[in-house]
Fold:
Amino acid sequence: MEHSLKSVTAPRARTACAILGAFEGGLLTPSARAVDEASGGQLAALARRGDLTGKAGSALVLQTPAGVAAERVVVAGLGKQGDLTLKGFRDAVAAGLRAAGASAARDATLFALEWPVKDVATTSLAQHATQVAAETAYRFDRLKSRREDEARGLARVVLAAPERAGATLQAAAAQGAAIGAGVALARDLGNLPSNLCTPTYLAEEAQRLGKRHKLNVTVLDRRQMEKLGMGALLAVTRGSAEPARFIVLEYNGAPKKHKPVVLVGKGITFDTGGISLKPAGDMDEMKYDMSGAGSVLGTFEAVAGMKLPVNLVGLVPTCENMPSGTAVKPGDIVTSMSGQTIEILNTDAEGRLILCDALTYAERYDPAAVIDIATLTGACVIALGHVATGLFSNRDALAAELVAAGEAAWDRVWHMPLWDDYQEQLKSPFADMANIGGRPAGSVTAACFLSRYARKYPWAHLDIAGTAWKSGRDKGSTGRPVALLTRFVMGRAAR
Ligand code: BES
Ligand code: MN
Ligand code: ZN
Structure:
């Protein structure tokens, strides 16, 4: 999908499809009004007849409208005038683009920057519109032997700008495109099955990313992890025939003296549960258990694509969690890189085991902040569903920054407690801690476990078990929280 920003007026736009907006009651936005006038009142007549409702989610397609250069017009419903929210804006852009894409049009011009959203700047709308356009065009059909409708769908979207499209608006649209590319990369990685998306594949993908954007990429193998003493990570990979990897990405966009932000992504390319085997139903979904890793690579794609003036480090511990004769067993005790010992009571609580060693590894960067991203607990899905990502942090200011970035990116998080009271649940009679804390507050005790390895820097943990993918008929990776993380890093770059 190609994106651009151009100043054009709706009646004169030479496009296969002009996407316009109308509010409930047939109230037309300025561009829609201009098209209505040029066409001799066609839109107003459709509103009177009841075809053009302006209801949120609706999208009316007009073929060969009179008096305008566009071959088609789509009128997206914006709901009640004055009530348009950021979610409503994004939904209307998506509905308009989907209607255009379902026609034979290959390009569209989107007149959405005049759809007013309270408290959201036009530059931000430009970013969201471009991002939504990229996300609506996304397909994952590379594993089908026959691709359907190859010659359909939109190949180009022009975002119509007010008369003098300033440089800031251009930059905002370019940022939206960069985030869109990052989200698409994360979705691709999530959607790839575990026989293709192995730890080795993730490392190769990181290296390709490094070449595209001039990043330093280092990949550690088992021997190097053994030298570092990553006993927790190595316990998880023991049952698997696929070799584990520890991927390090470094993007240097700012002078060396600036402390980096470190992103740590859980990269379990398949989670069977290990000896504590999961039930068979929906186990295929555990191919997404590397979505944290995918979101780290996706964020690097976006941040490096924007050339943001920040230093960013990505750490991706990656392996499979498999049962076998060599697998780690319940009750086994291992020593993590930090020196703390862990009694592994449930081999299905493996995410925290690979993450804890990565959190210790992060200390060498003297980080400004460390954020780990993980499909960590089913309990988080029960707590927050598929709407909000669970946020835990040892610094309230960092948590607030992430909450705000999530709102702005429309990739929201909810701040959960990390009180010491919960730490008790991790007590072990034999080791420094157990790797599980029982059923109550499972997402909190998982975060408590991680917090014991993140004492030396400001740290936040994002549990994306509910938000990284969708189940059901339209199942697939969502690319969350690439937009949130990128917004967060943009905020750091501006500061
Ligand atoms: N990858 C899973 C978490 C998960 C479960 C993500 C369902 C998405 C949907 C994780 O490794 C896991 O198995 N967690 C266990 C922890 C438990 C054994 C303490 C869980 O949530 O059941
Ligand atoms: Mn598990
Ligand atoms: Zn897992």
In short: The CA atoms of residues 10 and 142 lie 36 Å apart. The radius of gyration is 24 Å.
